[in-house]
Amino acid sequence: MYKSLEVYEKFLKSEATKKTYLHYFNAFLKWLNQSLGNSITADGLLEMDQKSLQMYVEDYILNLRTRLSPSSLPSIIAALEHFFAMNDKDLQFKRIRKMIPPPNKKAGEHAWSTKDLQKMLRNSSPNRDRAFIHLLASTGCRIGALEDLELRHLLSMSDGCRAVLIYEGSNEEYWGFLTPEACNAVDEYIEERRRDGEAIDSKSPLFRSAYQVGAQKVKPMSIASAKMIALRLAHSVKRNKIGRRYDIMSAHGFRKRFNTILKSNDKANPSLAEKLMGHRGVFALDGSYLKPSVEVLFKEFKKHIPFLAIDDSERNKIELVQKEARIKELEEVNHVEIKEIKDKIKNHDQIMEAFSGLVDNLRKFTGNPNLLKSLEVGYIPDPNKKGPQIVLSREDDDIPPLIRQRSIS
């Protein structure tokens, strides 16, 4: 490899970005050689004077303006800028960016509907395609994440679900989850590979490349293959074409559906929903300070399972299970509340019994059987009877006070 390209690749972190940037750079180099009738290499490009390089890059962008949409140009310019910057060529890319025309109305803004996914499943026979559809629909992950997924990244959760560790070991690492029907689709695909002779272990790729014999060397499904599967599935569903593009992106339409479902749920926690999307969060500091556990995220995910489910019967089954769980929860709450009420009644009866005993003792002590009679249930006071009078007198200072007359009723 040319030294200039080694430097170019060295400072690109993501493998997907490396492939994309190299593709854009090689396309520029091919155009330049065709235009000049030469065979200039990447290293040879750096031997040109800066003024010529500036002119060639500008001509290339002007040429692309006639063929590509404005939204395609920024990433191409970024790829070229990275090459020249890493090889100490200071071109005026601020000026080059001024050549990008105003953006058109974006295509591909819509999401796949549940009915679209149902149609895809009806038109898909391979288990790999079915698992592919369910995983993207359930996790909403980017299609570039599939290449690195292995079976060890799946973690069993309650209610027939699984957690999926996406982008393990990177700054973008996050947890996604599989619905019960997605788990079933993945299990069927893995079992098919096992029957075909593949030795499955924890480090086996979740999606492997196409094979004739299961026992042959296992390679993970490439991003290019994943995009081709998404494109083939998209062709089985009717889409509206806007210019050269469609209103629903073949792969990203799954992610848009996932995002739409989460954000449309009134019970959703916005910050946790963003985490399930693999985003940093809603607020500026969520990326640094909000680090929810997989259990907390799963609790949030469970709110959306009925809406993420693709099969109508599966959705009805999930809703029934959730309703039964809710009924059981309410019954348990009612049982606790009834027990508390019974305990309060029991305590009340004990207090009243103790109070009744106290009154009986007072009546015996005072010799007045009508003492505190007015507190008894059903008591009707005598209207002709005078109110209570207590008269105290002392015949002598040394004699204790005597109750001369007491009429308490």
How would you describe the overall organization of this protein?
This protein has four domains: about 100 residues, no CATH class; about 200 residues, hpI Integrase, Chain A, CATH 1.10.443.10; about 55 residues; about 30 residues, no CATH class. By secondary structure, it is mainly α. It is elongated, with a radius of gyration of 39 Å. The strands form three sheets. It has a three-stranded antiparallel beta sheet with strand order 1-2-3, with helices on both faces. The protein is built from 16 helices and seven strands.
Termini separation: 112 Å
The number of helical segments is 16
Mean pLDDT, all residues = 86
Any idea what the shape is?
elongated
Q: Say which CATH homologous superfamily of the largest domain is assigned.
A: Intergrase catalytic core
Tell me the helix content: 40-55%
CATH topology of the largest domain: hpI Integrase, Chain A
CATH architectural name of the largest domain = Orthogonal Bundle
**From the alpha-carbon coordinates, what is the Rg to the nearest angstrom?**
39 Å
Give the SSE order as H and E letters. Answer: HHHHHHHHEEEHHEEHHHHHHEE
Overall strand count: 7
